[in-house]
């Protein structure tokens, strides 16, 4: 529903790929623009000034993104070494396997003790633990061990 725009700037010839003047001037950063001349879709922007601003903005975002990734990698590498592993991939594989084991144990049926098999329990109550109950018991035991 875009109207044919009155060009506020003299046409400068466009790019090599697009020599024809645009039907719509899609900008909004300079001059008095009408609402139908504005767009939030960068694929429709024809203003060279706006496109240059966008290019700089994208470059700045890419640099910020690289900086964030470097910081996250450094943090992951520090945690990896703290856990005693040499590289992140090895640590992830080992930790994933540990998580799978715990999830398997956590999902054991409470009747496992009478049927035989592997299960988690608590003594002296002789109770089989699973799901949230197991999580709570492990968290409590870890907290007790951590306290002096």
Helix content: 40-55%
Give the termini distance in whole angstroms: 72 Å
Over the alpha carbons, how many angstroms does the gyration radius reach?
A: 31 Å
- State the order of secondary-structure elements, H for helix, E for strand: HHHEEH
Q: Whole-number average pLDDT?
A: 79
- Give the helix/strand class: mainly alpha
The backbone outline, from C-alpha atoms, is elongated
Biased composition (Acidic residues): 13-23
Region (Disordered): 1-23
Protein model, in words:
- There is one protein chain.
- Helix content is 50%, strand content 4%.
- The protein is mainly alpha-helical and 148 residues long.
- It has a domain of 58 residues.
- It has a two-stranded antiparallel ribbon.
- Strand 1 and strand 2 form a beta hairpin.
Short structural summary:
The chain is mainly alpha-helical.
Strand and helix layout:
Layout lengths: L47 H35 L5 H19 L5 H4 L4 E3 L4 E3 L1 H16 L2
Antiparallel strand pairs: 1-2
What are the salient characteristics of this protein?
elongated, mainly alpha, 2 strands, 4% strand, 50% helix, 4 helices
